[in-house]
Amino acid sequence: MTQKESVTAETTRRVPLWDNARFMCVALVVMGHAIQRQTADSDNALTLYLVIYAFHMPAFAIISGYFSKAGAPTSRQMKRVITDILLPYFIMETIWTFVQFLVEGIDTFNPTKPSWTLWFLLALGIFRLILPYLALLRWPLLWAVALSVGVGYFSNVDSTFSMSRAIGILPFFVLGWQAREWKIVDRWRDADRLVWWVRALAIGIFGSWIALVAVFITPLRDFGLRLWFFYDDSYSQLGSDVWWSGFIRLGLIVLAVVLSVCFLVLVPRKENWMTAFGQATMYVYLLHSFILYPVRETGILRDEHSSASWLITMVFASIAIAIFLSAPFIRRVFRPLIEPKPRWLFAKNTDVEVLSSRNDPTGSRRTNVRTIPEITGAITVVSPPSARPPGAGA
Known about the structure:
This protein is mainly α. The chain has one domain (3-383). It contains 18 helices and no strands. The chain has helices spanning 3-12, 16-35, 43-53, 56-66, 75-104, 119-134, 140-151, 163-182, 184-190, 195-215, 217-223, 225-228, 245-266, 281-298, 308-325, 328-338, 352-355, 373-376. Helix 2 packs antiparallel against helix 3, helix 7 (140-151) runs antiparallel to helix 8 (163-182) and helix 10 packs across helix 13. The two termini are 27 Å apart.
């Protein structure tokens, strides 16, 4: 096999690891949002919340970065930023404005301030704009960390167009891109003898983090650690207006990387029941908030509904919501909103094939389409089990 054929085979082979990781990440997103109201009255809920928020969005950013390319964007790729990110953002923001008007009487449409979960769509767009420039520099990951730590010192960089949050989690996106350059994941997929030892270590690290949060939950609540995990507010807004505040964020970045690596190590590498669900990540991410919104706004998850039994109920309900929103009929019904194909929008309609054959912004191949490998750079075409690389473990 020639080198070109080898590259083509790699880009067209679907790897279950990534679909499994995407579904587990988005299920954690749903879970974090589902239990958020319970954290005010329950230390157990806050413990789980802090454990999840320490790494779940960084892990999501790492996965998205892994499937990104740092070269100068082509016209087709620029069109995909519009069709895959900007247009769905404006559609969902408009819907959210209408919902909030009906429920809360808020009659302001302000697309510069993303509603709830929509910040991540804008962040992905910002990542794609920044990455080609960072890739031109030496030590792009170091620069990304410096930007993330440094932006916290500027109160004027806020949530407008998700700028503060996007810059805050930029290091994880760049780390994902660099991990592909370093072929770290390829080595892990081909690993055999060390798998269980590495996974045992990952379980130990997760267990230690859970125990640490549980033991110190009261001071962590008083400190407002959950707000630090948003990577959104400036240090002064977080109540830490001192010169060394950046070291707190730096420590949280290191923690998030360690936990994200442990998470990815524990993700099953073989195809299983959740693999197909990982192809509908953006549907779950963008639609679950509409299911949780009435539950959160009614206030039923407070007081006695913050008990351990209610917490467990919300955890399982979150998994059920993620599975439900991954169903094929959900994708058929909501495809015009999540995957719009506005061929009429562009001055020239020469790239029609790309507009109907694409990955979602996290790199997951959308079903029932044929993707062009040299454009997407992602692992995209479904393969039979026999196509998995030799030596891949469980």
